[in-house]
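Whiteboard transcription, Tuesday session. T.W. wrote the structure tokens on the left side:
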């Protein structure tokens, strides 16, 4: 198809100085849907784009090979200036989100449930995406199912259908009491591998701790592979708040609550980044108030309020919530 329209203005700063990258006619574009194969996912009122990536269709080397030359399927990018497409464009009040690269987030625990099923536990809930790397021993066209979630369920309710939708490790002798990840939010992918060493990187972010990796055949399962994750969250400043008591349970409740408003937030408050990613006034009253108890940065709340002032939701009583939060914040800062 014709070149995609877009605009990027990126500053990269390092010890040797700064580098600015701006979209121009020398850039090339590629329709990533050709290999990401997005489909509409359900499970909640938020309709998400799930990625059934087919690595055989991905242009090999475009991410990290300096000698890569765009070929079939690539077209010249069409630079579109912000002034043409977005009149009144201005910088966000919120700070830029932080992204932790996958090179720093190798999964600490992977349990083999049977010949083809694995359970990965990142140890703590995180918000981001998965990266699967494999060596050259995997047969091309092999499929791997990836299911992520926030819990591990018993497997009695699951059928034994292999690496397709559904299935359980007990089908081939796995432990039938635990190991199936609860995919309440519908993050269930099927990835197809190509020949040779490769890396499949998820584009959409999600919330998860546990991951089932299910290979369609045992040969692929025993080939060298690794699972990592990239993480995204709003900047967090240590030392703004602390709590300690003589009760271990109370301390654990505090840490769970504190970590929730650290790890589950990006640039605006929402109904929930798992269930529905739309800013709602009443949800913002809860989230912004809670975050205000443990962080002194209120730019995040102001940025979120500015959105719902311009694009309010339908419940009339909810539209009063941002004013209530601002009032609470003002009273708390006197």
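and on the right, the sequence the group agreed on:
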């Amino acid at each position: 198809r014709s070149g995609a329209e877009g605009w990027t203005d990126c500053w990269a700063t390092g010890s040797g100085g700064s580098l600015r990258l701006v979209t121009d006619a020398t850039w090339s574009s590629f329709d990533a849907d050709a290999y990401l194969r997005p489909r509409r996912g359900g499970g909640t009122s938020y309709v998400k784009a799930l990625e059934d990536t087919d690595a055989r269709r991905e242009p090999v080397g475009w991410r990290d090979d300096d000698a890569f030359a765009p070929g079939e399927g690539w077209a010249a990018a069409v630079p579109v200036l912000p002034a043409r497409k977005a009149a009144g464009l201005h910088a966000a009040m919120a700070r830029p989100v932080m992204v932790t690269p996958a090179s720093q987030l190798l999964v600490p625990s992977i349990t083999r449930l049977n010949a083809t099923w694995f359970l990965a536990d990142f140890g703590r809930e995180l918000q981001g995406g998965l990266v699967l790397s494999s060596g050259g021993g995997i047969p091309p066209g092999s499929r791997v199912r990836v299911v992520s979630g926030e819990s591990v369920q018993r497997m009695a309710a699951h059928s034994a259908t292999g690496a397709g939708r559904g299935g359980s490790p007990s089908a081939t002798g796995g432990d039938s009491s635990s190991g199936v990840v609860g995919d309440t939010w519908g993050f269930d992918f099927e990835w197809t591998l190509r020949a040779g060493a490769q890396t499949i990187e998820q584009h959409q972010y999600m919330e998860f701790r546990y991951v089932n990796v299910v290979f369609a055949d045992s040969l692929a399962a025993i080939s060298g592979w690794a699972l990592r994750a990239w993480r995204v969250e709003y900047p967090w400043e240590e030392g703004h708040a602390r709590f300690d008591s003589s009760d271990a349970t109370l301390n654990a409740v505090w840490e769970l609550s504190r970590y929730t408003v650290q790890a589950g937030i990006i640039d605006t408050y929402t109904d929930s980044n798992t269930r529905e990613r739309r800013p709602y006034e009443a949800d913002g009253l809860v989230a912004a108030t809670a975050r205000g108890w443990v962080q002194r940065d209120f730019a995040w709340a102001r940025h979120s309020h500015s959105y719902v002032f311009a694009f309010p939701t339908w419940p009339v009583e909810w539209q009063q919530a941002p004013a209530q939060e601002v009032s609470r914040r003002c009273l708390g800062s006197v």
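Someone added at the bottom: Helices lie at 33-36, 82-85, 218-222, 248-263, 281-294, 299-310, 321-332.
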